[in-house]
């Protein structure tokens, strides 16, 4: 484990303290994107269980539709903002956004959350269109960074953000297509980013393995293209049984992609195993989506949706948040306990929520919520103090 830790630290981005010299506003405000958006995402993840709590007064009871949309646009939007603001400068060589820029984007996210709660409690759905402000702000930021730097790699991020923006008004008008398009955008980003992180970290953990871990190749590109096509069909024509074929193909290709990374050899390294476990929800989500179209009497569509959201989005985003925090501050992985308990509880929550779609037992739903709360509470307890260290200077 020590070798893997050292390899990660050596290949990690430079600590934030070293970026302060060319990050306008950092030395004055000491505030960066992931330092505010990741804790906000974790806190908001705890609020997502509110619609399922008993004993709340009627005026404070949020409808399940709020939970569905906010899991993708509220929690997912915060994770997306924290990652984009931190990762794009690392790719483009541009200054790290800090200070007022980050505060302004966070204010847009917070405004959207207040608008969504107000719309859910009052029934005035038009208020919730204010939530489009953050996706548009992120899209403008990504487009500007891409144009100024000329980095082709970041074009994919801008395209994903454009899809996320287009999905927001559709979802707000009550169309399920909008929510599914937003999930498509999130899954595409996860397949792009995690698909590059996992092989690198696995190779570092395994050291001198007999066979090298395959890095991003033409097969990965084909697997992602097939998955994006399947997701778009799943979002745009969800009732067509013919969509089950591309969904099945995507499930097979993503499963092969995961097996090629040889995660079974890295089970002794909880930090690596958690990444493989998290990515496993992606082929599972494709497979369940295909089965839900062919045998809706056996597989509830909600099971496949939660495989993508709670499963892939929840577990992968937690793993990426941990890797981003520890990478930027130049710290080794926190502990085996942290890298086991946090993603493990998130994975258990996802499995129980998926199982609830097959067997609607309230105990499974309650346990799913309990494990979800545990995962994000432990994250806040362990990594909240680490985030304050990003403000230290040498």
Compute the number of strand runs.
Answer: 0
Share of β-strand residues: under 5%
Number of separate helices = 16
Structural class: mainly alpha
Overall mean confidence score, pLDDT? 80
Helix content range: over 70%
Q: What is the element string, with H for helices and E for strands? A: HHHHHHHHHHHHHHHH
**How would you characterize the largest beta sheet?**
none
Q: Could you say how many structural domains there are in total?
A: 2
Shape: globular
| Oligomer classification | single chain
End-to-end separation: 28 Å
Quickly list its features.
0% strand; mainly alpha; 2 domains; disordered N terminus; 394 residues
Q: What would you note in describing this structure?
A:
By secondary structure, this protein is mainly α. It has two domains: 20-174; 187-385, no CATH class. The chain is 73% helix and 0% strand. The longest helix has 31 residues, at 176-206.
């Amino acid at each position: 484990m020590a070798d893997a830790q050292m390899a990660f630290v050596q290949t990690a981005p430079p600590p934030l303290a070293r970026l302060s010299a060319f990050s306008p506003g950092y030395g004055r405000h000491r505030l960066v994107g992931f330092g505010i958006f990741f804790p906000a995402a974790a806190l908001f993840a705890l609020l997502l269980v509110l619609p399922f709590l008993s004993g709340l007064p009627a005026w404070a009871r949020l409808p399940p539709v709020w939970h569905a949309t906010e899991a993708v646009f509220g929690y997912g939007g915060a994770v997306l903002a924290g990652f984009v603001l931190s990762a794009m400068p690392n790719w483009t060589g541009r200054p790290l956004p800090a200070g007022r820029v980050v505060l302004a984007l966070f204010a847009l996210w917070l405004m959207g959350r207040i608008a969504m709660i107000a719309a859910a409690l009052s029934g005035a759905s038009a208020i919730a269109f204010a939530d489009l402000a953050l996706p548009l702000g992120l899209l403008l930021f990504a487009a500007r960074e891409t144009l100024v730097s000329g980095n082709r790699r970041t074009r994919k991020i801008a395209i994903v953000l454009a899809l996320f923006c287009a999905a927001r008004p559709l979802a707000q008008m009550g169309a399920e297509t909008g929510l599914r398009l937003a999930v498509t955008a999130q899954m595409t980003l996860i397949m792009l980013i995690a698909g590059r992180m996992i092989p690198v970290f696995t190779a570092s953990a395994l050291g001198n393995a007999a066979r090298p871990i395959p890095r991003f190749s033409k097969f990965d590109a084909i697997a992602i293209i097939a998955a994006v096509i399947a997701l778009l069909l799943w979002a745009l024509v969800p009732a067509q049984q013919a969509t089950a074929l591309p969904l099945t193909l995507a499930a097979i290709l993503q499963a092969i992609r995961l097996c090629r990374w040889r995660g079974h050899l890295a089970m002794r390294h909880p930090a690596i195993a958690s990444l493989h476990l998290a990515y496993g929800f992606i082929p599972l989500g494709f497979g369940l989506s295909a089965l839900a179209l062919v045998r809706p009497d056996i597989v509830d569509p909600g099971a496949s949706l939660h495989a993508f959201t709670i499963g892939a989005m929840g577990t992968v985003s937690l793993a990426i948040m941990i890797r981003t925090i520890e990478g930027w501050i130049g710290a080794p992985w926190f502990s085996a306990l942290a890298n086991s308990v946090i993603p493990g509880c998130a994975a258990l929550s996802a499995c129980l929520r998926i199982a609830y779609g097959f067997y609607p037992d309230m105990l499974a739903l309650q346990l799913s919520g309990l494990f979800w709360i545990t995962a994000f509470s432990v994250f806040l307890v362990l990594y909240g103090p680490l985030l304050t260290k990003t403000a230290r200077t040498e």
